Amino acid sequence: MRAVATIERKTDSGIYAEDSILRFAEGLIGFNDCKNFVLLENEGIAPFRRLQCVDREDVGFLVLDPNIVVKDFVALVPEREWKAIGLNDAVDRLAFAICIIGPSPKESTGNLQAPLIVNYTNMTGRQVILSDTGLSSRQPLT
Question: What are 85-99's pLDDT values in tens digits?
């Protein structure tokens, strides 16, 4: 299974290997028609990654592991949410925050209130809304 594609993996026809596609059955907030994505890595944007929609080439997001901003972030996601995507073991839990890069690092934010949680075993994910964490949809990254 190819959990992470690289930017070079995109073919001339724009098709990614089936086993590298993350499926969000409910879509993402504001993008309910976008259900299939690939996670692209590139050293030039690390520690960020690009979550590129396969359904719509014009939709892509810069994402970051929220544990970089908030220690043990995945523990803030309710157990029921992890179970909904088939994850019971805490070591397999992975989340991403959609980010907006501002003109300076202090003006860059991540949506830690509505992270994307992912199960790489079955390549599924969902966006969840965390209401009791005190985190923001425009949480500063610094």
Answer: 999 998 899 999 999
